[in-house]
Amino acid sequence: MQETTGVEVTLRGVRDQLEQMHTQLEALSEAIWRSIDHEDAGKLEEGVRFKQRYNDKREPLEDAMGQMLALLRDYPESGPGTSAEKPAQAPLQEAPEERPEAAVPVPPAQIAASPLAGSLEHKVPFGFVLGAQTYTSASAWPLFYEALLQELYGRAPEKLSHLADAPGGFEYAGRPLFARVPDSLEDPLPIADAIFAEADLAPGILLEVIKRLIGEMGYPLDSFKILLKEQKRGTVETLSIAA
Fold it and tell me: What is the rounded distance in angstroms from the CA atom of residue 196 to the CA atom of residue 181?
């Protein structure tokens, strides 16, 4: 029993380190991109070349870590070859089965994934175009969303504040997407004083939220575009939400 406990403790530690490494690699990727001098053509070209080399090395490492994490999560609760002990572990084995029951289905009248969701596969945002201005952000959906909301708040604070008081159609799975206090949200994203937005949204859902948000702020849908990078090749494209 002591040996199994020791294995499980070590196993959890390795899983935590692998998950932390993924976060660190993403943070380093963003730091490298931000450190590039985008005003100097030579330095920009040199920086992009280095970033591409980084991406090329990071991809197989991330794949290997993902496979290792999947393997470690499959480790039997009572250890390999100890099936006789499984009945004693039954309460632990039943726990994952309860998770789907906790999910709240999305009512048809509420927000559903955008039909453009399929175009987001293997891509991350790095900015947006609103009107005639271009803005850059970190290459992660929550940070991109935060940059957009802060820009919209800076332009029309009263309109965004209104969503925190009366979210209207801005709800998903029975939860508000804007609130005055962070406790009302699963993953609160601070936008301004006493204004928080829900960050725990899949990209396809977030795309539909942004589409409604741009309309709510009074901008034509075709005035807004998302800047996307393909994760493997680093190629850049713009995505219009007007479709």
Answer: 7
- Does the structure show a pLDDT above 50 at 1? no
Residue 92 pLDDT greater than 60, yes or no: no
Helices (H), 130-187: 141-155, 157-165
Residues in the chain: 243
pLDDT at 156 over 80: yes
Q: Is 46 left (phi over 0), alpha (psi -120 to 50) or beta?
A: alpha
User: Which residues, 6+ apart, have CB-to-CB distance to 174 below 8 Å?
Assistant: 104, 107, 110
The per-residue pLDDT for 99 is 42
Instruction: Please provide the average confidence, as pLDDT, over all residues in the chain.
Output: 78
pLDDT winner (highest mean) among 14-28, 85-99, 159-173, 194-208:
194-208
Give the Cα separation of 126 and 151 in Å (integer). 15
Within 10 angstroms of residue 162's Cβ, the number of other Cβ atoms is: 14
Distance of CA 8 to the CA centre of its chain: 29
**What Å distances lie between residue 104 and 23, 100, 117, CA to CA?**
28, 9, 21
pLDDT at 208: 92
Using pLDDT thresholds of 50, 70 and 90, give the confidence band for residue 110: low
The residue whose two tokens read 């849908």 is: 221
Provide CB contacts within 8 A for 188, sequence distance 6+: 179, 182, 196, 197, 198, 199
**Biggest CA-to-CA distance, the chain:** 68
For the stretch 235-242, contacts whose Cβ atoms lie closer than 8 Å and that sit 24 or more positions apart, written own/partner, are 236/126, 237/123, 238/129, 239/116, 239/119, 239/120, 241/114, 241/116, 241/207, 241/210, 241/211, 241/214
